[in-house]
Amino acid sequence: MHVSFDPWSPAFVADPYPAYAALRATGRAHYFEPTRQWLVPHHADVSALLRDRRLGRTYLHRFGHEEFGVAAPPAEHEPFHTLNGHGILDLEAQDHTRIRRLVAKAFTPRRVEELAPTVERLAAGLVDDLVAAGGGDLLGAVAEPLPVAVIAEMLGVPEADRRLLRPWSAAICAMFELNPPEETARAAVRASVEFSAYLRELIAARRSDPGADLVSGLIAAHDDEDRLSEQEIVSTCVLLLNAGHEATVNATVNSWRVLFEHPAQLESLRADRALLPTAVEELLRYDTPAPMFTRWVLDDVEIGGTLIPRGAQVALLLASANRDPERFTDPDRLDLSRQDNPHISFGAGIHYCLGAPLARVELAASFRELLRKAPRMRLVAEPEWKPGYVMRGLGGLEVEI
To answer: In the structure, how many helices (H) and strands (E) does the chain have?
Structure first.
């Protein structure tokens, strides 16, 4: 095992790419004792394993905790696991297929298309405020409020309540970090209880008075008399906020940090905003906002001659896969016009990110507004990374207009 992979080290979080290169050079699967996970760094393997039904986000559709050799979570964590366990990200087989099909009836490409003007209006307002202030923290001023406002508009959350969403989301997502402490679990449980209670009230209000929002759509979605349960609607709403929000916030500020570090590429984008679609994809590849996804091994798999037994957990290193020279030409070079770009930042297979089209709309909207209204925006202080590797992002990004 290569010592440089250290997800708790600030230096590693700031620049994990040399460690990924070392992992790729020394094998296809590495056992990492601190988290008891098998690290998988190559694009071909990560891409294949994301689609491999011998692996799963959960094992509970086939095995009990004891039978699978994994300790059951403490009873006091139950609200978090109930909330998390009924969302499509953590379901497999029939439950996943059924819920994703019903959610897709409400969360359609057309709905995302209809949302685009709203996203652009919200992005324009936030950028106008930043420009009027002469600059500030891009994270707090634009990157964070935009996806929260978009999800809130989608769900029909009243404006006065939107301030509640971000802290709930942050507390719940902290549980996805590696080996989270008990204090993190307590905060996540509290947020799960509060957020669930809030959404149950919202669902009750929409049942009696449906609107054009996504909650009303999820209530109405049905298929041969099959409907989403209230718990499934609650879990879906939380997942849309958490998955769409945490990753999009990090993608925005991480991408601007990368652009400031590559002034020639930034100038090319400022000179030709038609580059924006390929630029968004390249920035998602170059500095992947969710660098790692885990899977349980449901049936033995072999990776490069190494047998990974049932009951093990694999850590699929998406960020390493996105820099694999076997798949990308000159992968450590930022090229905003890159055409051949099969990055896997949104995952693959049945768990491919449902919100990917919306994330692309949000990123393009905020970039377009900033390039247009703040063409000379520059960094004024070296940003610091937040502790945490699974949701890898900056603590802030101070800019001047």
So the answer is: 17, 12
